[in-house]
Design goal:
The chain has 273 residues and is an all-beta fold. The chain is 3% helix and 49% strand. The chain has helices spanning 196-199, 250-253, and strands spanning 2-7, 12-14, 25-32, 39-45, 50-53, 61-63, 70-72, 81-89, 93-103, 110-113, 129-139, 142-148, 151-158, 163-172, 179-185, 188-193, 219-226, 234-239, 242-247, 259-266. β8 (81-89) and β9 (93-103) form a beta hairpin.
Amino acid sequence: MKTLSVMEGDSVTLHADVSDIQGDITVIEWMFGAENTDTVIAEINRAANINTVDERFRDRGQMDIQTGSLTITNIRTTDSGLYKLDITGTNTGVVKTFRVTVYAFLPVPVIIRNTSQSSSSSESSSVSKCVLQCSVVNVSHVTLSWYRGLSLLSSISASDLSISLSLPLEVEYQDKNTYSCVINNPISNQTKHLDITKLCQSGLSLLSSISASDLSISLSLPLEVEYQDKNTYSCVLNNPISNQTTHLDITKLCQSGKLVRIQLWADNRKDSI
């Protein structure tokens, strides 16, 4: 058995390795599918004067009548599987098997800041920490990894079809190392480089949070501030792959000399604030 890997949309040729089909050959068949359940997808039957290609491959499959090789263009992930060549003649018999794996295009990973886990300090350290999440959706047969420079820090893999992957990373805001999140399969990869300055703001502290796992739920989170407060506040709604932020304008919402309780809403969202 020969094994081939190809990207979705590319072309692949399954070579029969027969330089020239001799005159005693009567039938050339290509079959596709699991063992004992395969279906003829291309056939040349000289005795019956038949030259056909299955409807599934009609516009994409072509068999070389001189060598018996099969070429499939614009290949799809659903074309992954076993292909068998059967050549029959008066004095000739050839059987070859190929395993073809078609990989889908890889999405570019998405990196967001996980505000529910980030903190400015801990009991043992006063250094600002930033927790990041790298995610991809609807992927299969891939590995998602965090790298610091060229050093692998962590990874997670998926073999199932259409699964979502998410991988956390904790860094310090002052960290000057280069980080990147990479998704790859055996024949391709996509890389997203981390911009710590952009995603992790110095001195940013998590004050409170609330989460929801049910569908179509309303969330509300209070915050008490003084009118003279000069700090910068923001309310962030996030899930594993995206976020939305609203910045607080104290001057606009709070009247002078009063303590005001601000209510932050997120309606009908299966997210966190």
